Amino acid sequence: MTGIVFDIKRFAIHDGPGIRTSIFLKGCPLSCWWCHNPESQKKGIEHLRFKFKGSLSIGWETTAEELLIEVEKDRPFYEQSNGGITFTGGEPVLQAKFLMETAKLFKQKNFHLCLDTTGYTAPKIFQEVSQYIDLFLFDLKHLDDDYHKKYTGVSNKLILKNLEYLVETKKEVHIRFPLIPNINDQANHLENLAEYLSSLKYINNIFILPYHKIAQGKYEQLNFENKMNGIQEPTKDEVENTKFFFEKSGFNVKIGG
Amino acid sequence: MITKRIENLRHKSINTKPSISGERAELMTLFYQSEEAENLSVPVLRAKAFKYLMENKTIYIGEGELIIGERGPAPQQTPTYPEVCLHTISDLEMIDERPKVRFIVNKEVKKLYTEKLIPFWKGKSNRDKIFAQLPQKWLNSYEAGVFTEFLEQRAPGHTVLGDVIYHQGFKDIRKRINQRLDQLKGSQESDEQAKKDELEAMLISLEAVSIFAQRHLEKLNTILESETDKTRQNELRKMIQVSKNVPENKPKNTWEALQYYWYVHQGVITELNPWDSFNPGRLDQHLFPFYQNDLAEKHQTKDEIIELLQAFWVKFNNHPSPPKMGVTAKESNTFTDFALINLGGLKEDGTDAVNEMSYILLDIIEEMRILQPSSMIQLSKHNPDKFIRRAIDIIKTGFGQPSLFNTDAIIQELVNQGKNTIDARKGGASGCVETGAFGTEAYILTGYFNLAKVLEITLNNGIDPLTNKFIGMNSGTIENITSFEDLMLAYKKQLNHFIDIKIEGNNSIDRVISKELPAPFLSVFIDDCIANAKDYNAGGARYNTSYIQGVGLGSLTDSLSALKQHVFDKKTITLSAFTEVLKQNFKGNELFRQRLLEETPKFGNDDDRVDAIAVQIFELYFNAVDGRPSAKGGTFRINMLPTTSHVYFGSKIGALPDGRKAGKPLSEGISPVQGADRKGPTAVLKSASKIDHFRTGGTLLNQKFTPQILEDETGQEQVKNLVRTYFNLNGHHIQFNVVTAETLRKAKLEPEKYRDLIVRVAGYSDYFIELTEELQDEIIKRTEHQNF
User: Fold this and answer.
1) pLDDT band at B327 (very low <50, low <70, confident <90, very high)
2) Are B525 and B143 in contact (CB under 8 A)?
3) Which residues contact B115 (CB under 8 A, 6 or more apart)?
4) Burial class of residue A127 in the structure, from the number of CB atoms within 10 Å of its CB (0-12 exposed, 13-18 middle, 19+ buried)
5) Cα(B74)–Cα(B55) distance, rounded to whole angstroms?
């Protein structure tokens, strides 16, 4: 079978441990206001008009075997650095069958696999996928379901359920928390988040991803609606304070991926 | 920490403008004109001339100096070597007026040249002699930019001192020379007289440097008499003790070891103007025992030794590379004279050689932040991660030092060339990236070779389009080249033709130099010149290697890839039509050029279709050169480095099939064409490792990063892993260009040339040219701050 990929990045060093190759699968059920890859949200290959570059085709059809050839290239680097492959997106689980076929093939070849996921999918599918994955980079954007719906377009119920499943089955999970001023950085939200993650026990590592205006130009070029107008990047102090807060709650905290 | 004294010395070294001193040239001329110079054998003549220089040149001891001895009358005052290369008045004017790498030449120097030097040396300099006997076909190729010639303005050298001076004083060495002389008497060895002359010349040259040291001792005493500062008085007394012991006796402590080296260094670079200055090589290995002993016996404190090392560092920076001109200035356009300090690596027994002194010297490199000496670390599988991490710590500050070398590859390269394992482990790299067995090998760079130019000549069936002369071979008209194999065959014919010319020229030059330009003083320190009673420049060393440095691998590979893809595989254009487009420099064919840039497999992307072509070129080049005998009994080998010749060579070539326009620089070292690598650093390293580094004498690979990528622990650790992997794949050398704001600004203006530039943004990394303009500006600003 085939899947749709929109980028492959070698020497990815902030998507899990070591030197990795990140495979970006196209399509995402969420539509976060701060999304860095708005061109990746739609499932399937699309042709987008960029203001300066002209029309570009986003995504291509590929197979697990083709991807294997690509990821094999950097095997010596993974072995030296204890790195591997990261599936990211988009939301990779949206192409669950293709993802599983690929992950299964890669596992047979002894690669370390990370899944960078929003966790938004049916538990049955998520559980099936999870058997091939060594480490989950699990995004947690907001604990309050109303806000979650507002800012990402979907409820967080499935997300939390899937997270809890990973914890129950003692999978290795790194939480990725995008720190967005005025959206999820309020003190009480941070406290709730820390309390919730503590209650899950097995979670030790939190990666804070401070909001960055990096993608603004893309929205402009694509003529997409940008809901983040007026929202500033968090200051260095704010980021450090948040890090300190989670550390106080007993987590290992890193800034960035 | 840098003391006030070191700051002053450093400041003076950095801020004094280089100038030309006429002293050495005048003394040399006076000696050659004297009666004493008559009826001497060439080695003895050279040795006596050297002695005359050392007896009469200005002795400089600067305020606050701890290590003493200058090549010229004062720091940055640079001597000339008329017996090697006689500058004309217009040369001197050019050197004085050029905007880059300028030396001040005052009126007195010009007058000296007009009245005394030019009338005497004209036609007699090594340069004149060499050019007088090179055949027309060599001159044509040289003029066309097929190759350069290293030995036309400077003497051979390119060597590195081993450990002899740390175990033997001049007294001990004299004894060895005298024993060899005794052996010769009545032994009926061949060339008895020549051997006697050489050994005698060695003794005279040692005496020359003894006198030089003695004169420093006298000057120290004079300074002490009038010195009123108690602290300085004490220092001067210590310096007197040092120079009383070395170089006559073996050194007892770090200070004496450094001062001894420096006297020898002055000797080597005053005797002649050898390429790559001179070099103490494995400095951490040599100094560590002295350092340990100094601390144990409380002879000096660690801080005192650190200050000595800093003082030693400044001395290198006082000596800009002797003034170059013409093609030589273009191929090596820099003040740097390539003394390359080696740290780390393996001990003779094959174990980890990193020691406390390795780390102290890394601190010095970081704190001094000075152009010269250059520095590198040798990294073996057996060296700890901590060592390379410390090096990366310094690299990230963005001044290009230290560079990183694979010790395990260096040893393998040396062993492949026939060195024994111990000699190989005592070796390293010098100059840019050149492999050598330190203390036992004469390894001479003979010139850069323009691999891409040969393709241009191939496509013109032997004619150089630049000069319109037929300088190559008849390898077939383009109408007769109907397959990629045909093309490679024609290329091979032309390549072998020009390598033959280059080697014939090298051997002709070698014969002149070995006869007319011996270096008895340098010969004393490189084994087995004494045992062989033969000069370094005549093949006296244990190992003798002549390198020809290949340039433009990336440009040539991509050009052949373009021809293969578009002419022979897809057949979208004929070879004749393609050649016509190149002749017009893509005029009116910009769309076609874009297709060449975008739709051709390019070297540096870990794409076997094109990397296989690079390997093919490498094999052709290797087979054309490697193993051929040199006139002085050595062997020709290849290495792959450019210094700045890729710019010069580019200026000599018209448009190339890879889309490069006429006159633009070629790719450098074994790096991909600027901007052609689009899959990140792992892909570049994979491509670069597909050629067999073990069969070279060094390859050069450049990688760019912004300071941001090395900012955090993750970035540093993964760059370490990048290097370790490249070395596991048998790569020879890599250097990280941690780019400056200036480069980023250029990248913003000409993004197509900087496609491979990775920047650390904020918690993640991306290609710089992919960022929004505002973000680019923001990073440029940040970068500016980091580089103050």
Assistant:
1) confident
2) no
3) none
4) middle
5) 16
Contact B723, B404 (CB under 8 A): yes
Chain B residues within 8 A of A255 when measuring between CB atoms: 763
For residues B310 and B8, is the Cβ–Cβ distance under 8 A? no
Pair type for strands B434-436 and B428-430: antiparallel
Q: How many domains does chain B have?
A: 1
Cβ atoms of B320 and B335 within 8 Å: the answer is yes
On whether residue B149 sits in a domain, the answer given is: no
Catalytic residues of B: 432, 434
Which residue range(s) make up the domain with B673? 443-786
* Residue B693 CB-half CA count within 13 A: 33
**Which tokens in the block code for residue B695?**
């069969």
CB contact under 8 A, A77 and B679: no
Residue A240: phi, psi to the nearest 5? -65, -40
Q: What is the pLDDT of residues A59-103, one digit of tens each?
A: 999 999 999 999 999 999 999 999 999 999 999 999 999 999 999
* pLDDT tens per residue, range A237-248: 999 999 999 999
Identify the residue whose tokens are 């030089």.
Answer: B212
Question: What DSSP letter does each residue of A111-132 carry, written as one string?
Answer: --EEEEE---S-HHHHHHHHTT
CB–CB of A214 and B680 under 8 A? no
For chains A and B, what is the number of CB pairs under 8 angstroms?
81
Range in A232-241, B238-247, B518-527 with the lowest mean pLDDT: A232-241
Task: For residue A76, list chain B residues with Cβ-Cβ distance below 8 A.
Answer: 725, 728-729
Cβ B364 vs Cβ B258: under 8 Å:
no
B684 Cβ under 8 Å from any chain A Cβ: no
Predicted confidence (pLDDT) at residue B586 exceeds the cutoff of 80: yes
Please name the residues in contact with B524: beta carbons below 8 A apart, sequence gap of 6 or more. Answer: B173, B177, B202, B205, B206, B530
Nearest to B73 by CA among B92, B60, B87: B60
**Closest C-alpha to B397, from B369, B371, B361, B363:** B369
Q: How much of chain B is in helix, strand and coil states, percent to nearest 5?
A: 55, 10, 35
Distance from CA of B215 to the nearest CA of A (A): 56
Q: Indicate the residue type of A119.
A: G
ipTM above 0.85, yes or no: yes
pTM: 0.94
Which helix (H) or strand (E) is B443 found in, with range? Answer: strand B441-450
A257 vs B contacts (CB less than 8 Å): 763-764
Q: Does A51 touch chain B (CB under 8 A)?
A: no
Q: Contact A168/A220 with Cβ under 8 angstroms?
A: no
The CATH code of the domain that includes B585 is 3.20.70.20
B470 - beta bridge partners?
B463
Judge whether B594 lies within some domain: yes
Kindly list the strands in the beta sheet with B702-705, ordered across the sheet, starting from the edge strand earlier in the chain: B340-344, B374-379, B403-406, B733-738, B702-705, B758-760, B765-767
Please say whether the beta carbons of B22 and B112 come within 8 A. Answer: yes
Within a domain: residue B530? yes
Whether residue B516 is contained in a domain is answered as yes
What are the start-end ranges of the E strands in chain A? 2-12, 20-25, 46-50, 54-58, 60-63, 84-89, 113-117, 135-139, 172-179, 205-210, 252-255
- Which candidate from A81, A83, A210 shows the least CB-CB separation from B763? A210
A77 touches chain B (CB under 8 A): yes
Query: Which residue, B274, B273, B243, is CA-closest to B260?
Result: B243
Q: Can you give the length of chain A in residues?
A: 257
Catalogue all structural domains in chain A, each as residue range(s) with its CATH number: 2-255 (3.20.20.70)
Closest CA–CA distance from residue B594 to any residue of chain A (Å) = 15
